[in-house]
Amino acid sequence: MGLALGLLAVMAGLLAASETAAQAVREGLALCGGSVIPALFPFLVVSRLFVATGSAAALGRLLAPLTRRILGVSGPGGTAVLLGLLGGYPVGAQTAGELARTGAVSQQEGQRLLLFCNNCGPAFALGVAGTGCFGSLRAGVWLWLIHVSAAVLTALLTRSTSSPEGRTSPSAPQALGSAFPGAVRGAGEGMLHVCGFVVFFLVLTRLLTALTGLEHPLPLGLLELTGGILRLSGTRGDFVLAAALMGWGGVCVHCQTAAVLDGTGLPLRRCLVGKASQCLLSALLAALLSSYALS
To answer: What's the pLDDT score for residue 163?
Structure first.
């Protein structure tokens, strides 16, 4: 009954502020076409190619000594962490899911990877959070370093004493020519899901603002990261809040993550636990470093 009433309330809000909702949809589509798709689509294609062609295993053999020693994950698992840090949400989760689905890593390791592999990319941290909010590239660099540090700390805190191992019968690697069409098709389907969530949550936050007057960056950022970040004013307290919001990612990002994990057998709840941990660790690190980062 509670869910039904909530959905009726959303429908009533859409009717009461139909023009606001329509404008939010237009802006959301423009955001997807101008920023989200150009920034994310190539990484989604490449991450799928990494797994399908066996490149993740090849790169994993080079990364394995480092990733096993520091993060406690196998070499292929290390590629999920690397791609997630460079590509941004939800590239890391997609890579971990594909690795688990194809047998390059075990389901157990795939679940652990979700605790710290799905992260905000440097483009968002430097461009949107650093320059856009704080007017400082330096602040953006520090926010990304804090974000990376929180992910590494989460990995260290959840490290097992056992050695991670891939499954004994991973899927055979495909040739680039046969893997590429599937990678593009899969990435296109993933982008459709991502853009759908971006547009919907932009509509939702605009309705909340229009109907309730809610403008505080914390609740809006917990729902949708970009909208919350862009409402910050650039103070030291806002720097801590920005780091915390980036660590959490937002419900919109979690929905995107659920979409790319569909069919992989990996549960979203592990990712939620990891993002909550990164949120707290990021806030703590930002509180310690804010005076230096904003000087």
So the answer is: 53
Query: What is the sign of the dihedral through the CA atoms of 103, 260, 122 and 287?
Result: negative
pTM: 0.88
The pLDDT score that the predictor gives to residue 214 is 84
The type of residue at 158 is T
In this predicted structure, what is the pLDDT of residue 261? 92
CB neighbour list of residue 194: distance below 8 Å, 6 or more residues apart: 36, 40, 90, 256, 259
- Residue 13 confidence (pLDDT) above 90: no
Tokens coding 178: 């046969």
Angstrom distance (rounded) from CA 192 to CA 70: 36
pLDDT in tens, 127-159: 889 988 888 899 999 999 999 999 999 999 988
- 81, 107, 150 from 42: Cα distances, Å: 17, 26, 26
- Report the length, in residues, of the chain: 295
**Do residues 273 and 146 touch, judged by C-beta distance below 8 A?**
no
Greatest alpha-carbon pair distance for the chain in Å reads 58
- Determine the 3-state secondary structure of 234 from DSSP: coil
Measuring CA to CA, how many Å separate 130 from each of 150, 191, 214, 229, 236?
Answer: 18, 25, 24, 10, 13
CA distance 42 to 27: 22
Mean confidence (pLDDT) of the chain:
88
pLDDT tier, 117 (very low <50, low <70, confident <90, very high otherwise): very high
Q: Judge whether 49 and 180 are in contact, CB under 8 Å.
A: yes
Q: Alpha-carbon distance 138 to 211, whole Å?
A: 37
Question: Contact, 97 vs 128, CB < 8 A?
Answer: no
